[in-house]
User: Which sequence fits this backbone?
């Protein structure tokens, strides 16, 4: 392992009372060679006018590790150089004047074992409100295996999830129940039954279905499991409904999760808004109880979507793989929600690959080995339909849950027909791909052929044939790179 | 009813030529194809009977189709599936699974409900065919 290059500054200057630029306190160190065990982060910084970008980078390093606004003599009671984060590299963002990528290294000793809350309290704690910066965005992180191995990782993982469901060689199919709010438990279970019987593997509560006056959670669970079990009997396939256990307190979430387990559900669901610690608690519960854990990323767009400020979703995906969920909504490319194809590809790699190489065109700044953490199943949901099946399989591959909510329930012949249309479209595309056909170009023809023996598919293709959501993405890649080594 | 386990149960039954193409896909990926059969289609019946060992090292998919047909002759009224195993790190599991033979008549499942306290219901799934002993389930 390479030895850290410590730059000790003359103590009489470094510890003079008053305010000292962060650079001079040692938080800017372009000679620093990151250790294999360092946590690395790259931030997009937009300094206020007149602020030296190196000083801004140093300030980010300082404020996300040991620094405060003024010199403190108590630093001298510690091996403070060891604990200081070091901004070690600064690159201008290609084509965007006034923005820089600042690379910062953090020693492993700064973080508590297995705690996303502790990691994030440093990395995104105070620093995002820091006045000398107009804006700040956490673009990517490299978590060293030394630290990764202190996290559980996905409770089940893609491989074991498939083995439990007995479903191989094709994307899983799901649908979110619609309308999102207002259905009674009994009517809701009807939608579950119809969609699963028609050929889906999963149905799903929406993020804001918890326990409301129109349908309390216990009623929902009972009716949903009636629908799930009837559909299993009607098809001979294992199926599930993501029972959302999101609630106001951990005690209530555990109570709901335990009831889901008692009823024989294979999967439960949480929302990202419950917070990182609650996510980790539920992931441990899921591992103890052989339960698949679905995460809906409710709330993320408030901080992931704008390019200049917030956190890139690829970082959230990384944290969630560490935290231990089994499913995460990760974009569709072709649907109604934000999603540049290259960005989405990078996020899917973060979720599914055992080892992710640096790939700036996909927004991946650092090589990331995943040690032996399980793979996290991405979920594509939001404004997709059967007519896009060839594009979905081409973009997203096989280890993904494709969720057609409106694209199932909005089918003109009914919910079961909507589900069947999606399943037939998927099987036809997978079969053709395996036969060596070019599904990207021949997709529409393959689907039209399959529709000849499947009226529901024919109706689906007719209904949604021209529906696309073709808007420019706000979160896109910056590179054409000129890369040396990003560490 | 039609049991819809596997990759292609919603499509018309695959012809031997189509099965061969799927086997070729598995071989091209370095996966090992195996044939399994059963007369218990319960979705949690994981361990179907093996028609010999997985066909390690076979390069010609036509050889697999020959074995499928031998299995069909021996068990014409049972479910037969093709599975492909991937031994590579990160998977070490099944990558393909599709049904290539099924009984002419599939009677389906009885869903038995046991009602407990607080409206809590437990469900048991019983294949109607399992009323008879193995080997005598499908005429």
Assistant:
């Amino acid at each position: 392992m390479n030895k850290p290059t410590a730059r000790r500054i003359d103590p009489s200057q470094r510890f003079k009372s008053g305010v000292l630029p962060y650079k001079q306190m040692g938080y800017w160190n372009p000679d620093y060679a990151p250790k294999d065990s360092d946590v690395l982060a790259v931030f997009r910084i937009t300094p206020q006018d007149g602020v030296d970008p190196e000083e801004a980078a140093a300030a980010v390093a300082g404020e996300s590790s040991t620094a405060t606004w003024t010199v403190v003599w108590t630093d001298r009671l510690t091996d403070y150089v060891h604990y200081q984060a070091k901004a070690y590299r600064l690159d201008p963002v290609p084509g965007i004047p006034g923005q820089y990528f600042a690379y910062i290294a953090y020693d492993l000793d700064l973080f508590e074992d297995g705690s996303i809350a502790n990691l994030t309290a440093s990395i995104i704690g105070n620093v995002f409100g820091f006045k000398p910066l107009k804006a700040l965005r956490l673009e990517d992180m490299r978590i060293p295996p030394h630290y990764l191995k202190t996290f559980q990782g996905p409770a089940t993982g893609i491989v074991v999830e498939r083995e439990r469901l007995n479903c191989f060689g094709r994307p899983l199919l799901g649908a979110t129940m619609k309308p999102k709010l207002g259905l009674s438990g009994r009517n809701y279970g009807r939608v579950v039954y119809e969609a699963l019987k028609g050929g889906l593997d999963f149905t799903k509560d929406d993020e804001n279905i918890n326990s409301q006056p129109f349908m309390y959670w216990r009623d929902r669970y009972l009716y949903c499991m009636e629908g799930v079990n009837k559909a299993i009997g009607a098809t001979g396939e294992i199926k599930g409904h993501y029972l959302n256990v999101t609630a106001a307190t951990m005690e209530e979430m555990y109570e709901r999760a335990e009831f889901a387990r008692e009823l024989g559900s294979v999967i439960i669901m949480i929302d990202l808004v419950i917070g990182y610690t609650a996510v980790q608690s539920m992931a441990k519960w899921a591992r103890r109880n052989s339960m698949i854990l679905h995460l809906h990323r409710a709330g993320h767009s408030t901080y992931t979507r704008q390019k200049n400020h917030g956190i890139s979703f690829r970082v959230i995906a990384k944290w969630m793989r560490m935290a231990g969920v089994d499913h995460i909504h990760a974009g569709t490319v072709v649907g109604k929600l934000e999603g540049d194809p290259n960005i989405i590809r990078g996020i899917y790699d973060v979720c599914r690959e055992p080892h992710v190489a640096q790939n700036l065109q996909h927004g991946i700044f650092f090589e990331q080995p995943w040690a032996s953490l399980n793979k996290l199943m991405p979920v594509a949901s939001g404004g997709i339909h059967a007519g896009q099946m060839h594009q979905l399989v081409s973009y997203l591959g096989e280890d993904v849950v494709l969720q057609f909510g409106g694209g199932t329930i909005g089918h003109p012949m009914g919910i079961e027909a909507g589900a069947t249309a999606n399943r037939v479209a998927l099987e036809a595309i997978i079969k053709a791909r395996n036969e060596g056909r070019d599904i990207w170009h021949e997709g529409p023809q393959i689907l039209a052929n399959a529709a000849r023996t499947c009226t529901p598919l024919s109706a689906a293709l007719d209904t949604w044939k021209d529906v696309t959501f073709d808007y420019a993405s706000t979160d896109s890649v910056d590179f054409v790179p000129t890369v040396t080594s990003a560490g | 009813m039609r049991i819809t386990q596997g990759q292609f149960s919603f499509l018309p039954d695959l012809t031997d030529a189509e099965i061969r193409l799927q086997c070729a896909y598995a071989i091209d990926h370095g996966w090992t194809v195996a044939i399994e059969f059963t007369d218990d289609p319960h979705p949690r019946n994981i361990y179907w009977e093996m028609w010999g060992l997985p066909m390690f090292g076979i390069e010609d998919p036509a050889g697999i189709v020959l074995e499928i047909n031998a299995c069909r002759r021996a068990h014409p009224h049972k479910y037969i599936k093709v599975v492909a195993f991937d031994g590579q790190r990160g998977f070490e599991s099944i990558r393909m699974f599709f049904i290539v033979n099924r009984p002419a008549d599939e009677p389906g499942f009885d869903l038995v409900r046991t009602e407990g306290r607080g409206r809590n219901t437990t469900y048991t799934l019983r294949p109607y065919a399992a009323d008879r002993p193995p080997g005598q389930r499908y005429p």
Observations:
- The CA atoms of residues 90 and 102 of chain A lie 5 Å apart.
- Confidence is low (pLDDT under 50) at residues 481-487 of chain A.
- The first strand of chain A starts at residue 39 and ends at 47.
- DSSP finds 18 helices and 15 strands in chain A.
